[in-house]
Amino acid sequence: MYIVFMGPPGAGKGTQAERVAEELGLEHVAPGDLFRQAVKQGDRLGAEVKAFMEQGILVPDNITIKVILERLLSQAGGEGVVLDGFPRNYNQAVALDEALEQQNKSIDWVVNIQVSQPELVRRLSSRWLCRECQAPYSVDGREAEAVRQCPACGGGLYQRPDDNPETVTRRLQVYFAETEPLIDYYRQQNKLVEVEGEGGVEEVAGRIIRALGYDGGDNN
Ligand code: AMP
């Protein structure tokens, strides 16, 4: 089972992809998480990707495709994968289709989470994450200063360096120019599942599970 999660930055893709992966017993693979970890460790990959991430633009395909396809190959014997944030352009989509085809596999569903642009900007500028468990929280700056600690594990809260207003604007531009066109690519393959992403985490998760047909219904 291969499920791709798509949606603009701030749509809740990461949170929902992780939940669905857990619910269906699939591996969660997110290039953004892999890259952030590499930057934190200061390894070679981290050095290669840091500047692109800071600018809010895509890491070059030769790096991203290699990292993700290697990761997929290492998961090939498992139940399947939820891909969160890959593919993000046409080149990556084709590389993914070809790599899966070589293993006689293919993408089953592409979940596109839809959220209006004003709501995206609001969410990104109030997004704080736990340094320890990476749980996201939506709080305004003063509230975060007051809370300071993750309610789940007590870790410190921080804002992603690419969640500042200038980089958020760039990331949204990159999404609309390079990633959004993939919606049609997957619609033509009859793999697209569109889900309304406004509302609470539980509410949206329920919509996704229903749309994928895992609540005993069908996925129409
Ligand atoms: P995300 O955590 O998905 O918001 O990704 C954070 C950053 O990682 C992006 O702004 C890009 O710089 C980089 N990145 C994540 N996924 C990809 C991808 N599929 N292709 C290229 N760059 C990516």
Please describe the structure with a list of short key phrases separated by commas or semicolons.
8 strands; three-stranded antiparallel beta sheet; five-stranded parallel beta sheet; single chain; about 220 residues; alpha/beta
SSE arrangement:
Elements: E1 2-6, H1 13-24, E2 27-29, H2 31-41, H3 44-55, H4 61-74, E3 81-84, H5 90-102, E4 109-114, H6 117-125, E5 127-130, E6 136-138, H7 141-147, E7 157-158, H8 165-179, H9 182-188, E8 192-196, H10 201-211
Helix pairs in contact: 1-10, 2-3, 4-5
Bound molecules: adenosine monophosphate.
Tally the helices.
10
Please state roughly what percent of the residues sit in beta strands, choosing from under 5%, 5-15%, 15-25%, 25-35%, 35-45% or over 45%: 5-15%
| Largest β-sheet summary | 5 strands, parallel
Q: Percent of residues in helical segments?
A: 40-55%
